[in-house]
TrEMBL record:
Organism for this UniProt entry: Bradyrhizobium huanghuaihaiense
Residues covered by the GST N-terminal domain: 4-85
Protein name: Glutathione S-transferase
GO MF annotation list: transferase activity
SUPFAM superfamilies, per the entry: GST C-terminal domain-like, Thioredoxin-like
Keywords on record: Transferase
Pfam family, one: GST_N_2
Length: 214
């Protein structure tokens, strides 16, 4: 019988789901992978679209309920395992800043990132969800300069989200390799959880590419 306390993570290697898997490892959470070969287009097949109509990963199932959206998943999982110490409690003064920077990822960073990657003209600053790219990134730079983590001396689940994001976006040249970003990404990606998942992802991605004929 399936353990209802285990989390099912809908997963594809070297995707946004990687950060969620790293977070699960950091939390010491019990989880199983439902693997999708995105190189073969499995995320767009009816079986998965019935779970997430957007055809995106990550998504998780826990106790019969579905959670999608990376920001929501990060908050949910960290709150589910407070003993790991990666989430400020409701009465903690850092709770508001913690939520701010997690929400900032989905509301400002991701839209700005996609516009830049696609070389699209951004909306006028008064209508843009992220003002402009440089202002959006500058706010992060200012915050991280207080370091070593987003909330100063305390590492949280927000750092797992952002550490993985900075690692990938700098690798592809979308985010500039400023010293503060590089040091932050290196600090997070040097952690054992990230190293384990990166190695596993490389093997899985190679298998997926072979199956898909890529």
């Amino acid at each position: 019988m399936t353990d209802p306390n285990r989390i099912t993570l809908y997963y594809s290697p070297q995707s946004r789901a990687t950060g969620t898997r790293v977070l699960l490892e950091e939390l010491g959470a019990p989880y199983d992978l439902h693997i999708l070969n995105m190189k073969a287009g499995e995320q767009r097949k009816p079986g998965y679209l019935a779970i997430n109509p957007l055809g995106k990963v990550p998504a998780i199932h826990f106790r019969g309920e579905l959670v999608t959206e990376q920001v929501a998943i990060t908050i949910f999982l960290a709150d589910l395992f407070p003993q790991a110490g990666l989430t400020p409690g409701l009465d903690d003064p850092l709770r508001g800043p913690y939520l701010r920077w997690i929400a900032y990822y989905g509301a400002s960073f991701e839209p700005a990132l996609i516009d830049k990657f696609m070389q699209r003209e951004p909306a006028p600053i008064t209508q843009s969800p992220y003002a402009d790219y440089d202002t959006m990134l500058g706010a992060l730079e200012t915050q991280l300069e207080k370091g070593p983590y987003l909330l100063g001396e305390r590492m949280t689940a927000a750092d797992v989200l952002w550490g993985v994001a900075f690692s990938w976006t700098m690798m592809f040249g979308i985010v500039p390799k400023k010293d503060v970003f590089v040091r932050y990404a290196e600090r997070m990606t040097a952690r054992p959880a990230f190293q384990r998942i990166t190695a596993a992802d490389e093997e899985m991605a190679a298998r997926h590419a072979k199956v898909a004929g890529a």
